[in-house]
Amino acid sequence: MAKGKQLKVTLVRSLAGRLHKHRSCVAGLGLRRMNHSVLVDDTPENRGMINKVAYMLEVEEA
Question: Among 4, 18, 19, 46, which is most exposed with the fewest C-beta within 10 angstroms?
Answer without folding.
Answer: 4
